[in-house]
Inverse folding.
């Protein structure tokens, strides 16, 4: 099973770019890397997902090196409302056939200060 | 379009009591999941259902049973609640297609077992 390791917490200031790195040394060939955001008392919310290289959407970028043993979530110009826990998830198979091995890391608590 | 709904939002049980947590989704997703989240921990998968009529164990299935009633509904049952089952329970659903496995989460059920 592909477990993940993330920093427990990070601090930032409004307007800065934040990069959160996740380590997943045992990632399988067909595994995707997915990041979720969770606010207190709410369910997690999907942010971005990728398989290799770089993926960008309207809220974040995801950088994945060639060996895929790590990934970096990049949040541009964070605001106070980005204060949340961010989870790195590995194990969603390419063809969606192996949902049983979904593992959430313990998450990174991001605190954005004014 | 309500997404994923869960009932109840809060519940207090005594040790040994039973209860069923209900979950429903209106997105025509074929896969559904139950997670628990304890303080300071990430989400841990209890059971999942890849399609109507099938269920499989996740990381922490002991003490729980599930029923995939139909495509929309996936319930979680505690037959004899224990204090160790005090947690926040999240239901999620996804369309398991050809690209990854984005999951949509419900608002959670906060369960306390005394």
């Amino acid at each position: 099973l592909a477990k993940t390791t993330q920093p427990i917490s990070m601090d930032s200031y409004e307007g800065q770019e934040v990069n959160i790195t996740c380590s997943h040394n045992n990632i399988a060939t067909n595994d995707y890397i997915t990041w979720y955001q969770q606010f207190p008392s709410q369910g997690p919310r999907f942010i971005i997902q990728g398989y290799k290289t770089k993926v960008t959407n309207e809220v974040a970028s995801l950088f994945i090196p060639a060996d895929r043993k790590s990934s970096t979530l990049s949040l541009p110009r964070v605001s106070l409302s980005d204060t949340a826990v961010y989870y790195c998830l590995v194990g969603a198979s390419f063809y969606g056939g192996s949902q049983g091995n979904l593992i959430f890391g313990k998450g990174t608590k991001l605190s954005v200060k004014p | 379009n309500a997404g994923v709904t869960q009932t109840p939002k809060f519940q207090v049980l005594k040790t040994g009591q039973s209860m069923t947590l209900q979950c429903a989704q209106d997105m025509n997703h074929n896969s559904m999941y139950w997670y628990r989240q304890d303080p300071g921990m990430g989400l841990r998968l209890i059971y999942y259902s890849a399609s109507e009529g099938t269920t499989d164990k996740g990381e922490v299935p002991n003490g729980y049973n599930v029923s995939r009633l139909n495509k929309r509904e996936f319930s979680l049952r505690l037959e004899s609640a224990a204090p160790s089952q005090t947690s926040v329970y999240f239901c999620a659903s996804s369309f398991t297609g050809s690209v990854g496995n984005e999951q949509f989460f419900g608002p959670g059920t906060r369960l306390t077992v005394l």
Summary: The first strand of chain B starts at residue 4 and ends at 7. The interface with chain A takes residues 4, 31, 33, 35, 40-45, 48, 50, 56-59, 90, 92, 94, 96-108 of chain B (CB under 8 Å). The mean pLDDT of chain B is 91.
